[in-house]
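Below is the record:
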Amino acid sequence: MTTTVRDGLRQEVLEANLAIPQIGLATLTWGNVSGADRDAGVFVIKPSGVRYEDLTIDDLVTVRLSDGAVVEGNLRPSTDTETHRCLYLAFPSIGGVTHTHSTHAVAFAQARRDVPVLGTTHADTFNGPIPCTSDLTPEQCKKDYEYNTGRVIVDLLDGDDQRALEVPAALVANHGPFTWGTSARKSLEHAIICEAVADIALHTLSLAPEGLPPRHLLERHYTRKHGPDAYYGNPGRAASR
């Protein structure tokens, strides 16, 4: 069985996956990006274990959102596919998901610590700390492990789609970051920012372990880019700082 996804989705997912090693977010094959076509009821994702330098558009796998069945592709999808699917089902706003093992975000995940908001760089994108989940239970690891990895993220955010929009990232305890956005490309952008602010936070905490910036400053930086009163950037032009 095959299905038709919206124009450009497969190319977008391919390019996002190929960018992961280019920008240093993963070693070997430790990362994957997917993009959803909600109208078709599917998402496209990287195949399992395929090296980035060998990845082609024909290798990508199309998976049905409702039950996780492969509907197009000759390879097995990423082992993290069920985590992606769980996030898509829980949060209607999501159009793309990225998972990496980027060094500094993983360090926070392995320490089972949130990435705190320590300045405006973080607050420009995330309206609050990047939260870390609780540990998966033995039962969650034994059966449906990857789907349950998604469930602990959903539970962490109380299944709140608005909260997922405002903080489009989470750390899975002892594992690593998952980020999301309205598209595959946007989810990758959030993965880049997640890693950058985790790196900055580690340096900041080594210099000043205590103390947080004023909340009004953080709110000003978030709301100038997000929400009805946002004024950052120019419509129709690619954003830069």
